[in-house]
Amino acid sequence: MNKVTIKLLQLSLIFLLSWSSIAIKPTQAKALTVVSDEWCPYVCDDRALPGFLVEIVHEIARDNALKIQFSLMPLARALKLAKKNKVDILLALTPQHIADFQLQKSQLSFGGLYNDFYVRAGHSWRFQSMTHLSSTLKDNAILGTINGYHYGEQLNQLLRSNTEHVYRASGYSPLKKLLKMLQMSRLDILIDSRFTVQYQLSKLSESPIIYAGTQGDFTPLFLGFSSLLSKEQVQLFDSGLMTLRQSGKLDAILAKYALTDWQQQAPTDSRNMSLNRELIH
């Protein structure tokens, strides 16, 4: 055997050993990217209390040895990235969001919302009907809403017909902005979910804002998943939620936000239109 042949054999052996050492190393699992806009207490910009949905997802991920990376971003941007499969999981979506952006949906609901009205303490207005609300706006009342949210076709039509009396807040914390404007009498009425409004009001020593009625019924929200995730990965979150509910951990998480299990809410009446966060296209 000549020196050239020996040298080639040595190089081949080195290559095979190097390749083997690479091949047997465990593949580092890719972290799942979880995104949402700020919508406290569902999703909060707070290290101590990051939001009950964020805590639920973290618990499920930990119990299933999944790595996740959570980021706050505007809902519109998050949905566009999800449709392009650039993020893996979106929190607190309506079924319409999921269908419109071609995502996979959790089988179980992960929270829900109502379509609630609020006014300043001492204000006599209370929601009675869409006709009554329309009449109130035509009398120069200003209604505060959040830009990009969809309030059901009937209410959307009313808002489009009264644009000069509707204020649409935007940014990373639009609800906080609306509450401040309502306190300063720059708005007359505010619409959002009781869970978000009451959570913000609970931080005040004295609440200058009161509940003024509800349109529609409870609307469930879901997790939206990238189409690239496997059915097994999606099912982990449904089964994980069931485990948290059965173990009592879900109640413990919700208690930190002064909430109870959304399963106790009344079922949605499809004849009524509730506030949801669908984008207006």
Structural commentary:
With 281 residues, the protein is an alpha/beta fold. The protein has two domains: 32-111 and 221-262, Periplasmic binding protein-like II (D-Maltodextrin-Binding Protein, domain 2, 3-Layer(aba) Sandwich); 114-218, Periplasmic binding protein-like II (D-Maltodextrin-Binding Protein, domain 2, 3-Layer(aba) Sandwich). 38% of the residues lie in helices and 19% in strands. The protein contains ten helices and ten strands. It has helices spanning 3-23, 52-63, 75-83, 95-100, 130-138, 153-161, 174-183, 194-201, 231-247, 249-255, and strands at 32-36, 68-72, 89-93, 104-105, 112-120, 143-146, 166-169, 189-192, 209-220, 222-225. A five-stranded mixed beta sheet has the order 2-1-3-10-4, with helices on both faces. A five-stranded mixed beta sheet has the order 7-6-8-5-9, covered by helices on one side. Helix 2 (52-63) links the parallel strand 1 (32-36) and strand 2 (68-72). Helix 2 packs across helix 9 (231-247). The longest helix has 21 residues, at 3-23. It is globular. The model is unreliable at 3-11, 13-28 and 268-281 (pLDDT under 50).
